[in-house]
Specification:
The complex is a heterodimer of chains A (209) and B (276).
Chain A (H helix, E strand, L loop, with lengths): L1 H17 L1 H29 L3 H12 L2 H17 L9 H20 L22 H6 L4 H10 L2 H12 L4 H8 L3 H26 L1
Helix pairs in contact in A: 3-4, 3-5, 3-8, 4-5, 5-9, 7-10, 8-10, 9-10
Chain B lengths: L2 H12 L5 H13 L1 H20 L7 H17 L7 H6 L10 H52 L6 E2 L3 H11 L16 E9 L2 E10 L2 E9 L9 E5 L2 E7 L3 E7 L3 H17 L1
Antiparallel strand pairs in B: 1-2, 2-3, 3-4, 4-7, 5-6, 6-7
The chains are: A mainly alpha (209), B alpha+beta (276).
């Protein structure tokens, strides 16, 4: 049976390749479709490529890995392109970032199911951080490497909300849409994320001393 | 509001995301509570500093190219739903050239240039209008002040007369122009008198008319010759203002009568002056 099917399939291909009329039809059809699609592609690129930096930055912070970030952004752009016809909103950046965020989480879940939500962190209660005053943290606030390390220590939902607010300057409403949380949750999560970032910084500064 | 509540809302306040009433309540608390105020200031400057110093990972140029070529591959592959690999090998089609950075940039520059030109045009045509409307607002305030003062200080008129042939020569003698003066008693707007005033950096004539128990101040001064402007009605601080101009003069009527009465007044005034 399997053999028979295979043979049939092969003969179909044979016919298809040899029949000049079909070939001609397919070529014409393809040309028509090609003509329509570059226009859609151009309008997609015009709308979405300006947000490439934002997309990459978010993915990079979520995945903490350059290669993963690039793969996710590429995948997200493909997904976005496929559903671009259904996008009628005015906020292209928020729409794209939602897709980038979801694609990132898919990969995060696949790679390591941990790290997605806040977990109780012993390190916070490690000695040292309480002795570090806000003024001392402020003194270190130009140290990008220190901040990067402290940020990378945070759970994904904190890295995400800090990026969206501090770097993209998005409103609570936009953040709620992208992170798929109730608008009322944004403020408290942001507050917790900031407090935790301060703590992580304090611990690092305390250790340096 | 207590300290605990204020601390809870501090991030929302910092981000300007609270409703005005809650914001005011927090402001009130911060004024009264030095401890919270200090915490707020520290938190604010720290958050801003950290936000600014957080590294921003810009997309490398090769990612853009990767995405663009993958999108082109995507539209290249799409029509081959039924054929799969076969069709692709059968019809080796030329991949469209990926849009080069130069090409993209030149379009962007064109668009930018067009936007600048457009903005300049809009600015050129709109700005004088906006400035004018700002000037009109300022003038309106002056006019109302003058109108109110005239009623307040019992200084409605320098020359109290219902006779236009008394008012007009008096004004003509005091001013460097000769404003039209007509009595509109038969139309329900008796002339009460005339006054000198100072508006828009120049002396102007103020003609005072009465409508039942209300007064209308009609300010008149020479306009730019030939610059007839459309009639403009404004309502400001509860007063009605009506502005029009003929080739010789600017007119501003100010009163607390209703807008319709003021319109009627203007029509009657124009009708009568055109007869003179």
């Amino acid at each position: 049976m399997a053999l028979l099917l295979k043979a049939e399939h092969a003969s179909e291909n044979q016919d298809f390749e040899s029949d000049q009329r079909i070939v001609k039809f397919v070529v014409v059809k393809k040309r028509e479709e090609d003509h329509a699609q570059p226009a859609a592609l151009t309008s997609f690129e015009d709308a979405m490529l300006p947000h490439l930096d934002a997309a990459h930055n978010l993915a990079r912070w979520l995945l903490r890995n350059e290669q993963d970030a690039q793969d996710v952004v590429q995948e997200a752009y493909l997904r976005a392109f496929k559903s671009f016809a259904g996008f009628h909103g005015s906020n292209g950046r928020a729409w794209l970032l939602t897709i980038v965020r979801n694609t990132s989480y898919t990969l995060l879940k696949k790679n390591r199911a941990v790290d997605l939500t806040t977990t109780f962190d012993e390190e916070i209660h490690a000695p040292g951080y309480e002795s570090v005053s806000p003024a001392t943290i402020l003194e270190h606030s130009e140290d990008a490497e220190l901040i990067r390390e402290a940020m990378d220590e945070l759970p994904a939902e904190f890295r995400e909300i800090l990026t969206l607010r501090h770097q993209e300057g998005l409103s609570y409403k936009e953040i709620a849409d992208i992170a798929q949380i109730p608008p009322g949750t944004v403020m408290s999560r942001l507050a917790r994320a900031r407090a935790k970032l301060r703590e992580c910084l304090a611990v690092r500064i305390g250790k340096e001393k | 509001m207590n300290c605990e509540e204020a601390t809870k809302l501090m991030d929302g306040y910092l981000d300007g995301e609270l409703d005005p009433i809650t914001s005011q309540t927090i402001e009130q608390h911060l004024r009264e509570c030095p401890k919270c105020d200090r915490a707020y200031k520290t938190h604010g400057s720290l958050i801003r500093a950290l936000g600014n110093a957080t590294p921003y990972y810009k997309a490398p140029a090769e990612l853009r190219e990767r995405i663009q070529s993958s999108l082109r591959k995507e539209i290249g592959e799409r029509p081959t739903r039924n054929g799969g690999q076969n069709t692709r090998s059968l019809f080796p089609r030329k991949q469209p050239e990926p849009r080069t950075i130069l090409f993209g940039t030149s379009w962007n520059w064109l668009a930018l240039a067009a936007a600048i030109v457009l903005a300049a045009i809009i600015g050129w045509t709109l700005l004088p209008r906006l400035q004018r409307s700002g000037a009109d607002q300022f003038l309106a305030t002056q006019l109302i002040a003058s109108h109110v003062r005239s009623l307040m200080a019992n200084h409605l008129s320098d020359v109290a007369s219902s006779d236009q042939h008394t008012v007009k020569p008096w004004l003509d003698a005091k001013l460097d122009f000769a404003p039209p003066v007509v009595d509109l008693s038969s139309e329900g707007f008796p002339l009460v008198g005339g006054r000198l005033d100072y508006l828009d950096n120049r002396p102007v004539a103020a003609l005072v008319y009465q409508r039942r128990k209300h007064f209308i101040n009609l300010f008149v001064w020479p306009g730019e010759t030939g610059s007839a402007r459309p009639t403009m009605a404004m309502s400001h601080q509860g007063y009605q203002l009506l502005h029009w101009a003929d080739p010789d003069f600017n007119y501003w009527a100010v009163s607390d009568v209703n807008a319709n009465d003021l319109q009627t007044f203007k029509q009657q005034f124009e009708l009568q002056t055109s007869h003179h």
